[in-house]
Amino acid sequence: MMDSITTKLNDEALVPHISEAHLLMDACLLAGEILMANGSEITRVEDVILRIGRAAGIEKLQVYALLNAITVSFPTQGLTQMRTIPPRIQTMDMEKIVAVNDLTRKFTAHQMSLVELHDCLSQIDRTIPTFPVWLQILGATSVSVSLMVMLTKSAAPINLFLTAITSCLAYTIYLMIRNRFNMRYFALFVASVLISLMMLVSSHLFKSPFDPDIVIVGAVMPFVPGVALTNAVREIMAGNFISGQGRIIEALLSAASVGLGIALLSFFY
Amino acid sequence: MVIFLNLVGQTILAYISVFSFGFILNIPRKTLNRAGIVGASAWLIYELVFVLTQHLLDKNWRIVLGTLLASTVIGVMSLSMSRAQKVPVLIYNIPGIFPLVPGAQAYQVVRNLVVGNREVAGQNFELLVIIAGAIVIGFWIAEIINRLRSIKPLT
């Protein structure tokens, strides 16, 4: 008896027939997943899915997007599917957002078939280039140095030099831990403990123009959640309250990791 | 003269910082330069407001006014730029706003709470809230200006 039931579930007739609508649904969910995982706002995700649906002639399409799940429904076809988005290590990858937008625009202008759209979307992880790691580290270093001068209005050579070295090391450690263990907040914490440790060592080595507070303001810049906080507030203002709250908690956690890491050793200098 | 040189230097530094923040965000290569220009002009506006109102206004109020005007400029410029290059507005918005954003304050709040300086933490928290609010309101003003110019954003 059990046998017959289990075999029946995998029967040819019961496996959902892969129709045009299923393919379109999958393309919509895939586009939404890529956008959301790479740091886009909710409004854009919903807008892109609505555009794809409208271009394919779906009536009354419904989308409900959260930070960790997207639900799309085609009421007239009687089709609803949900896609969870894997737990985020919130990193922004703008190039992928641009790629999804380009594909959507081509599909909306009917320069691209549905099958092509689906293929391109599912290969996007492999085809989109990223900057090499050394360039990212160099970028973080120059962000710290220039922002240190801009925010504190002081440019003593010793502070410039220490900011460059500290932020370079800290960003390297951060990238290593984040990519190896997939733990973003722990990586932030370790990186800022490293910054604090460097300051502790150099406060014993160097004299007056060196100021640990100035160097820390610079070195911490690639890690602080300023952009995340602003995006969270903009999300709430746009009316997406649940996701906005999630983003605010995310930003506060990053701030707490960095602040705790710096404060841990700051009693000694 | 000193003030002028200072402004030029700050603008160049802002260009460099936004350009290199683009590497971290992995924005497309062709947009790096323009993102830098957006960020540099926003920071120039901020600094100008900050210098010109030096003796007129309170410090927090100067920061709010500067941030408001700078983020309005970012909103208006980034829409024109994104229309020119056919990329979403996000590409110019986020790197451009980066130097103005209250990230340092967010970390100062936690750090000073841990160390025990409640007053400094409170001041930084005030700054954090008013800067974030000013940025959002600046983007609203920019959106209204953009609607009056009747340019619609690309998705």
From TrEMBL, chain B:
<dbReference type="Pfam" id="PF12821">
    <property type="entry name" value="ThrE_2"/>
</dbReference>
<dbReference type="InterPro" id="IPR050539">
    <property type="entry name" value="ThrE_Dicarb/AminoAcid_Exp"/>
</dbReference>
<keyword id="KW-0997">Cell inner membrane</keyword>
<dbReference type="GO" id="GO:0015744">
    <property type="term" value="P:succinate transport"/>
</dbReference>
<feature type="transmembrane region" description="Helical">
    <location>
        <begin position="12"/>
        <end position="28"/>
    </location>
</feature>
<keyword id="KW-0472">Membrane</keyword>
<protein>
    <submittedName>
        <fullName>Threonine/serine exporter</fullName>
    </submittedName>
</protein>
<keyword id="KW-1003">Cell membrane</keyword>
<feature type="transmembrane region" description="Helical">
    <location>
        <begin position="63"/>
        <end position="82"/>
    </location>
</feature>
<comment type="similarity">
    <text>Belongs to the ThrE exporter (TC 2.A.79) family.</text>
</comment>
<dbReference type="InterPro" id="IPR024528">
    <property type="entry name" value="ThrE_2"/>
</dbReference>
<feature type="domain" description="Threonine/Serine exporter ThrE">
    <location>
        <begin position="10"/>
        <end position="145"/>
    </location>
</feature>
<feature type="transmembrane region" description="Helical">
    <location>
        <begin position="127"/>
        <end position="145"/>
    </location>
</feature>
<dbReference type="GO" id="GO:0005886">
    <property type="term" value="C:plasma membrane"/>
</dbReference>
<feature type="transmembrane region" description="Helical">
    <location>
        <begin position="89"/>
        <end position="107"/>
    </location>
</feature>
<keyword id="KW-0812">Transmembrane</keyword>
<feature type="transmembrane region" description="Helical">
    <location>
        <begin position="35"/>
        <end position="57"/>
    </location>
</feature>
<keyword id="KW-1133">Transmembrane helix</keyword>
